[in-house]
Design goal:
The chain is built from two helices and no strands. It is mainly α and about 70 residues long. The protein has one domain. Helix 1 runs antiparallel to helix 2. The two termini are about 20 Å apart.
């Protein structure tokens, strides 16, 4: 995979996880009952965890050897 492809994969992973976090926030804000609110909160937390871990792991995996 070229550097351009890797850059787009990193950018796409960040965009998708940010969209997931926004979806979770909308779910928390708009749901009238507790069940969907808990699900939305879980989606937000998992999206933030994935946003913190996945791009760093991919960049480390694709790092050029010394």
């Amino acid at each position: 995979m070229t550097a351009r492809g890797r850059y787009f994969v990193l950018a796409l992973s960040r965009i998708v996880t940010a969209a997931g976090a926004v979806f979770g926030l909308v779910l928390v804000a708009k749901s009238p009952t507790i069940g969907p609110k808990v699900l939305g909160l879980a989606i937000v937390v998992m999206a933030l965890v994935v946003m913190a871990i996945v791009p760093r792991h991919l960049a480390q995996r694709w790092r050029t050897p010394r």
